Amino acid sequence: MEVSRMTFVDLFKATIACGGIAFLAYSYPVISQALIIGALGIVWLSYARKAIATAKGK
Asked: How many CA atoms does the CB half-sphere of 42 hold within 13 Å?
């Protein structure tokens, strides 16, 4: 089994990405809220579809 380790470069890239996302979310709150709600809605619909298919026995 291969163990994955985070390097300093990976940590730096993740920090920059999260900081950039946070900056955009605070700079454009209406757009970011709409995008976050839309993404969560898509995830919810995906799980709901799987749950319904499982309940039907497919």
From this structure: 5
Cα(56)–Cα(26) distance, rounded to whole angstroms? 43
**Which residue in this structure is represented by tokens 């709150």?**
29
d(CA 35, CA 43) in angstroms, rounded, equals 12
Q: For residue 42, how many other CB atoms are within 10 A of its CB?
A: 10
Q: Which mean pLDDT values do the consecutive 10-residue runs of the chain (58 residues) have?
A: 85 94 91 92 95 86
Cα–Cα dist 46/38, whole Å: 12
CA–CA dist 6, 11 (Å, integer): 7
End-to-end CA, the chain: 33
Q: Which amino acid belongs to residue 36?
A: I
